[in-house]
Each structure stands twice: as C-alpha cells, then as structure tokens.
Request: fold
Amino acid sequence: MGANIYRKKTLLPVFLIPAFAFMVVFLHYPFIVNILNSFQEISGLAAQSKGLQTPWYANYIKLFQDKNMAIALKNTLIMMAATIVFQVGIALLLAILVDQIRFGAKFFRVVYFFPIVISATALGLLFNLIFLHDKGMINQILEMFGREKLIDWKSGGLAMFTMLLPVMWQYVGFYFVIIVTGLNNISPDLYEVSAIDGASRWQRIRYITLPLLHNVLCTCAVLAVTGALKVFDLPWTMFPKGMPLNQTWLTGTYMYYHANETRNTDYGCAIAVVIVVLGILTAKIVNRIFKEKDY
Reply:
C-alpha cells in the first residue's frame, strides 16, 4: 500500500507550485528587474528611475572603460583559481588523511568545519587584528624573532594575499565535508581487494579513491568558481572601498560599492548582470573540463 503513494502523481503539482512561485517572486522576477534597471538612470536604492540612459546601453560601455572593473574581474579570476587549487585541493588532502585514521575522525571533522559556522564579518575583524601593521599578531611574532622592519600586509603585492588567505581558510571545511561524504560512499571491499592484490596505500588512493571521487570533485569545482563570484562580506570587512589604491576590488564588492556607496545603482545593476553571466560561463567551462563520469 505504501508503494501506491509514489504511483499517484496527481498531487505533485500541489507541492511543486508553491516552491516554483517562491522562486519566481524572489529570484527570477528580481533578476529581470535588475536587467531592466541596468539600462535606466537610478541615483540610489529605492530611488525612482529617471528614464533610460543616453544611450540606453551606456552602463555597459562604461564597464569596458572602467579600470577598477578590470581590476575586479582580474582579482575575481585569481580567486576562482585559488579556490579550486587551495580550497578544494586542501579539502581533498585533509579528507583523505582523516579517512585513513581510525580514532579521532569525528574530532577533526568538527574542527575543519568550524570556520563555516563563524560569521564572515567576525572573521574579517579577526584577520584585521592578525595582519595589523602595528602590533598585529604576525608582526609581533616576527619581532620576537628579531625582525625590526614591520611588514605592511595590506599594501602593495601583499594586499591580495592578505585578502585571499582568510577566504581560503574559511571555506576549506565546506568542501572537506562534501568530499568526506563522497569517501564514505566508496565501498570498503574495493580497498580490501586491492590490498590483497598488493596495492600500496598511494596506489589505492590513485586508482580507487580519486577516480571514484571524480564527480564529487566536479561538484566542488563548480561550487568553488561560482562561490568566488559571490564573495563579499569578508573582503569588504578587511578592505572596504577597494583599499589600498583600488587594488583589492572583487566583482561582488565593486557592485556593492556602486549600488550603496556612490548611489550609482544602475551601474551596480549592470555589474550584477556581468556577475551572473560570468557565473554561467565559468560553470559551463568547469563542467566541460571536469566532465562527470558514470561508473
């Protein structure tokens, strides 16, 4: 009798329509309005439109001429590459190591996932204290070892590194949990048979673990590159308004800056459209590179 419940599909629309309506109202409709607003002249959030731009595509011309937008795109692409190499890469390494131990695995899972629970704003303030030029934690440690000249972690070529490090650290645990779940789905019998055949631990990882984690890693890569486009709160807390010298803009922070700080809401909407288009394109490229396989 219980199986008959799944055969009756007449009630499915009753459950699907509310969810579909929610997505239309709070996702699709605002996105369409955002596209329309990018062609209009709007001087602030909730401000009434003054009509179409002259010409109507003026904001998109400005995007190609804006040097700060070019910096934001370059930094975002760097963050995308860094998320795949460091976030997913370190998460994979930690997941494999934790999967090899017999005792304490649950402890390490909690420890590695813990940064996700902390507010990104709080983490930004924490790392601001760590990287302070005067009396910051790292510089104090360097002073203890006899270094007299303090390092300004928020200037020059170090600014991007200082911004990337906490972002990488925060989300490693997220991909760690996903990969650990994938590891748990691999049958232990495969490892036992390979061990009987004389395979070393490295060979078992190379020929069993990594191939069977391919689809999981593909999912992590897509989430990583699309997530890099949406990073905002932690970088904005550490480097508000692209400081120093507009070197640390990201597409998310630059969009927020124009939508809220400069009152060029229409230009912020145009940047938001670029973020969505870039997200779709990068997701397609990553899916093509890390094409899922059937096993």
In short: The mean pLDDT is 86. The domain at 47-289 is CATH 1.10.3720.10 (MetI-like fold).
